[in-house]
Design brief:
CATH topology of the largest domain: Nucleotidyltransferase, domain 5
Bound molecules: zinc ion
Largest sheet: 5 strands, mixed
Structural class: alpha/beta
Radius of gyration: 20 Å
Order of helices and strands: EEEHHEEEEHEHEEEHHHHEHEH
CATH class of the largest domain: Alpha Beta
Strand content: 15-25%
Distance between the termini: 40 Å
């Protein structure tokens, strides 16, 4: 009897990596093969409120359980890649500060996972992971110079320039969400006024809607409908309202589209980009805001033909962070360079 007869064709020679996407709301863990194919993914609530130490233990515990899943154990990952929001020291594997985790300062998250699980772990910024994922296996495979924006709780961004992820001088990549779009706008959580994030993120859409409607008792929650209190409002609700023609939500999506169009025209002028990829949960509302984005983009982009710039929605969607984190880990481990 041939002992290899039940083995899938990729299992014998293809390396795998674990990708972890640590968001403020959800923690996603996935097993990814070195071709960029996602073999298995699980999602969990992050539970930021449990506090730093308990959360680190939770991440370690959930990752250990994932590794023990027979479907994962059959293809044990060589490395782990973890994407987290915030300023990340990628060489040391340290989260310096993170907007999602206010009590995290100088947390050696990469080292903690590596020591607990015995697998080499690489930490990176979550938007960088998403951007890398789109270049490696998503909507940016054919592009050499593009920006990827993640529209979610905040606005994250990454850049591929000359086919490579761009880290800049501080080692954490660009902060596209904190470009000033409206100089006298709302005070952003970063301290500045009128950042792109205050006009184009789920958090701010809901906050601005509540302000318009004078709703004070409703707390913003991003938890899934089954687990959140009834009196909460999400960006998804606003999307449904806008689709029904509700004027206040429509106005906010218009403002969001125009802010993005302005920001993207600036980026394209500055970097001569050939493409823009929009990802994150809020990119699903593109049917509402995209016409406003395109109109503003064309109006502001005067020296480069807008027709030459590919504007795309993420093809990997919620898988991009996991796939990208795994790909970055494989690249950094030097076992394989997915982009070359
Ligand atoms: Zn800001």
């Amino acid at each position: 009897m041939n002992s290899f007869s039940n083995r899938p064709p990729w299992s014998a020679r293809t390396a795998t990596a674990l990708g972890i996407d640590l968001g403020g709301t959800r923690l996603k863990i996935g097993l990814v093969e070195s071709t960029g194919r996602l073999l298995l993914m699980k999602k969990f609530p992050t539970r930021v409120q449990v506090g730093r130490e308990a959360l680190i233990k939770r991440i370690i515990g959930l990752t250990a359980s994932f590794l023990n899943d027979p479907r994962c154990a059959a293809h044990p990952p060589r490395v782990i890649g973890l994407g987290a929001a915030g300023l990340i020291d990628i060489r040391k594997g340290v989260v310096e500060i993170s907007p999602n985790f206010p009590d995290w300062q100088q947390v050696p998250l990469g080292r903690r996972l590596q020591d607990a699980l015995g697998i080499t772990t690489f930490l990176d910024n979550d938007a960088n992971a998403v951007t890398f994922g789109e270049k490696w296996a998503g909507a940016g495979q054919d592009l050499q110079h593009f920006a990827c924006l993640t529209l979610g709780t905040g606005v994250g961004g990454g850049l591929i320039l000359g086919g490579r992820l761009w880290y800049g001088s501080h080692g954490s990549g660009p902060e596209i969400g904190h470009m000033t779009i409206k100089p006298r706008g709302e005070r952003c959580r970063c301290g500045n006024r009128g950042c792109l994030e205050t006009l184009a993120s789920a958090t701010w859409l809901v906050q601005n809607y509540k302000k318009i409607k004078n709703i004070e008792q409703i707390e913003y929650e991003t938890a899934p409908p089954a687990t959140r209190p009834q009196a909460t409002l999400t960006a998804k609700d606003l999307f449904h309202l806008a689709r029904q023609g509700e004027p206040h939500s429509l106005r906010l999506f218009k403002q969001m589209g125009e802010a993005l169009g302005l920001a993207l025209a600036n980026l394209v002028h500055l970097l001569s980009l050939e493409g823009i990829i929009l990802g994150g949960g809020l990119s699903r509302a593109a049917t509402i805001f995209l016409p406003y984005l395109e109109k503003e983009f064309k109006k502001r982009l005067t020296l480069i033909s807008p027709e030459r710039v590919h504007l795309r929605i993420s093809s990997l969607q919620e898988k991009s962070g996991v796939i990208g984190a795994a790909g970055l880990a494989l690249e950094r481990a030097g076992r394989r360079n997915p982009l070359n």
